[in-house]
C-alpha cells in the first residue's frame, strides 16, 4: 500500500515554513580567505580604509614637477626656462627640493618632490642640456593626484553584502588587505534516487534513464551562492536511503533528494525522515511539484524534490532559491526577477492547486510551454514561469501575466 500525504500545505504556508526552518537551523557564517581568491564571494562585514590613497601626492603625467608660479606667462613665443636638477620615476625618491627657477623631471605615478605643486606635461616642454623651456602656463595641483584624493584613511569603502568583483578586489588590494572576511558558502549536497537512474558514462539498459536532477540542482544551488556537490544515487531501498542520508549529513548542512517523494509504492524518503528527524512538509498544493518533502535531522535540512526534472527545478526556484541565497549573504531582490507581458496562448489550469506554467519570454510576449513535467527539453527553452492561482481555471490569450524568471 502507498503511504498517505500529510495535510497538504498551501504555497504561501510552505514558503513561510521553509524560510523559518532556514532561520531556525542555519545561521550565516563567515570565513577568512585570501583577497586574491575572493572573486565572486560576498563580504561578511563593512570594510574601512587603512590608509590614504594615493598615500602621497603623485604625478598623473610624464613631465616636470615645478612650482606653478614659475610657469606664469609662459608660451611658445615666450617660454620660461628652468634648471632640471633630477629625474624621478615611479617608486623612486629624491632628497632634492624644487625651488624657484628649478624643476625635476618626473614619470607618471612618481611621488611629487618637496617644493613642487604641479606637473607640466612633457608635450608642453622643450628640454635641452640640463634646462627645460616651459611652453605654457599651469595651475597649482595640475596633473597631480593629491594624497587621499581617492580614498581617505578610516572611510567606509565596501559594505557588508557587497559582491566582490574585480573593481572591489582592486580597492582591497590598494589598501594592503591580504585576507578578508566573507560569507561562508552554505554546504549543500544532492542525492538522486530511483531504481531507474543511471549515471552518465555507464551503460544505459532498457527502461533506465540518465540522471538529470543531480547536476541540474547542483548548479542551481551554486547559482544561489552555495558550495554544492553531487553525492551520487540511491535506490528505493529503506536501508540504503537511510544510510546515504545519514552519511551525507556528516558533510553537508542542506541535503536535496530528488525522487522518492510521492505516496507511491517503494517511496521511502518520508519514512526515513520520520525515523531520523521530523517531517514539516509532505505535499504542497502546487502543480507540478505536489510531492515535495521538507524535514529536519539534527538541525540540518533535508528537502525531497520530485523526481521529474521540471517539477524539481520549479520547486527549487519557487521555494528554496530565495532562503538559500540569503543564507549565502546575497541580498538579492527577488521581486526584480518578475516581469510582465501578455500571454500568447490560452492556459487551462486545474482548479484547487496553484499551477506553475513554464514560459518563454519574447519582448512583451509570453509564450507558454505545454510539456509534461518529465519533458527535459522544455527546461532548456524556458525563461521562467507564470503562477496561476488555484481558483483560476483559465488564463485567456492576451491577458497580462507576471513571469518569475529563473534564478
Describe the structure.
There is one protein chain. The chain has 7 helices and 28 strands. α1 (11-25) packs across α6 (309-327). It has 407 residues and is an alpha/beta fold. The protein starts with 10 loop residues before the first helix and ends with a strand. β20 (293-297) and β21 (300-305) form a beta hairpin. Helix content is 19%, strand content 31%.
Strand content: 25-35%
Low-confidence blocks of residues: none
The end-to-end distance, rounded to whole angstroms, is 38 Å
What structural category characterises the helix and strand content? Answer: alpha/beta
What topology, given as strand order, has the largest sheet?
A: 7-4-6-5-9-8
Number of strands: 28
Can you tell me the overall shape? elongated
Radius of gyration over C-alpha positions, nearest whole angstrom: 32 Å
What's the helical proportion of residues? 10-25%
Amino acid at each position: 500500500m502507498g503511504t498517505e500525504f500529510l495535510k497538504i500545505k498551501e504555497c504561501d504556508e510552505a514558503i513561510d515554513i521553509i524560510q523559518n526552518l532556514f532561520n531556525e537551523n542555519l545561521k550565516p557564517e563567515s570565513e577568512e580567505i585570501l583577497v586574491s581568491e575572493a572573486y565572486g564571494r560576498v563580504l561578511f562585514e563593512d570594510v574601512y580604509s587603512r590608509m590614504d590613497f594615493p598615500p602621497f601626492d603623485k604625478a598623473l603625467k610624464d613631465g616636470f614637477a615645478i612650482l606653478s608660479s614659475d610657469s606664469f606667462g609662459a608660451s611658445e613665443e615666450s617660454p620660461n626656462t628652468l634648471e632640471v636638477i633630477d629625474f624621478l620615476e615611479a617608486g623612486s625618491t629624491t632628497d632634492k627640493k624644487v625651488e624657484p627657477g628649478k624643476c625635476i623631471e618626473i614619470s607618471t605615478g612618481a611621488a611629487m618632490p618637496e617644493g613642487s605643486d604641479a606637473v607640466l606635461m612633457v608635450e608642453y616642454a622643450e628640454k635641452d642640456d640640463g634646462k627645460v623651456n616651459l611652453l605654457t602656463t599651469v595651475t597649482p595641483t595640475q596633473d597631480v593626484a593629491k594624497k587621499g584624493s581617492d580614498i581617505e584613511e578610516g572611510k567606509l569603502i565596501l559594505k557588508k553584502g557587497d559582491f566582490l568583483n574585480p573593481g572591489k578586489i582592486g580597492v582591497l588590494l590598494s589598501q594592503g588587505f591580504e585576507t578578508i572576511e566573507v560569507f561562508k558558502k552554505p554546504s549543500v549536497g544532492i542525492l538522486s534516487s530511483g531504481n531507474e537512474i543511471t549515471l552518465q558514462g555507464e551503460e544505459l539498459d532498457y527502461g533506465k534513464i540518465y540522471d538529470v536532477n543531480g547536476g541540474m540542482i547542483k548548479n542551481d544551488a551554486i547559482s544561489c551562492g552555495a558550495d554544492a556537490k553531487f553525492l551520487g544515487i540511491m535506490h528505493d531501498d529503506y536501508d540504503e536511503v537511510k544510510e546515504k542520508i545519514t552519511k551525507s549529513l556528516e558533510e553537508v548542512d542542506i541535503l536535496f533528494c530528488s525522487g522518492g517523494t510521492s505516496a507511491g509504492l517503494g517511496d521511502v524518503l518520508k519514512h526515513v525522515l520520520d525515523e531520523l528527524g521530523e517531517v514539516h512538509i509532505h505535499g504542497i498544493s502546487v502543480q507540478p511539484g505536489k510531492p515535495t518533502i521538507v524535514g529536519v535531522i539534527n538541525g540540518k535540512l533535508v528537502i525531497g524534490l520530485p523526481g521529474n526534472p521540471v517539477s524539481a527545478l520549479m520547486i527549487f526556484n519557487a521555494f528554496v532559491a530565495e532562503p538559500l541565497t540569503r543564507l549565502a549573504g546575497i541580498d538579492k531582490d527577488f521581486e526584480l526577477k518578475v516581469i510582465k507581458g501578455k500571454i500568447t496562448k490560452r492556459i487551462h489550469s486545474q482548479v484547487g492547486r496553484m499551477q506553475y506554467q513554464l514560459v518563454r519570454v519574447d519582448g512583451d510576449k509570453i509564450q507558454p510551454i505545454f510539456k509534461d513535467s518529465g519533458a527535459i527539453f522544455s527546461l532548456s527553452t524556458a525563461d521562467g514561469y507564470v503562477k496561476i492561482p488555484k481558483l483560476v481555471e483559465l488564463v485567456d490569450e492576451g491577458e497580462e501575466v507576471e513571469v518569475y524568471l529563473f534564478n
